UniProtKB/TrEMBL annotation:
It holds the Pfam family HTH_3. GO terms for molecular function: DNA binding. CDD domains: HTH_XRE. Residues 9-64 form the HTH cro/C1-type domain. SMART domains: HTH_XRE (SM00530). This is Helix-turn-helix. InterPro entries: Cro/C1-type_HTH, Lambda_DNA-bd_dom_sf.
Length: 76
């Protein structure tokens, strides 16, 4: 199983000193407020935005996910 790692995205954006407005422009969003809603989980990133997001954050798409093993029936 995997979870989308919004904390990584926010941290990486800050490491690169990119503003929400800059990210919005790179991803084709109308303004920084819209990007903020994606970064904070109000909206979900569509798959077609992930390559642009990875390019902007200079990372691999796989970095956006945290992977964890699913529990077996005996562990549940």
């Amino acid at each position: 199983m995997s979870d989308f790692n919004l904390e990584y995205i926010a941290r990486r954006r800050k490491e690169l000193k990119l503003s929400s407005i800059e990210m919005a422009k790179l991803l084709g969003f109308s303004n920084g407020s819209v990007y903020w809603k994606y970064e904070h989980g109000v909206y979900k990133f569509n798959a077609d935005k992930l390559p642009l997001l990875a390019q902007a954050l200079k990372c691999k798409i796989s970095h956006f996910y945290t992977f964890r093993l699913a529990k077996t029936e005996s562990e549940a």
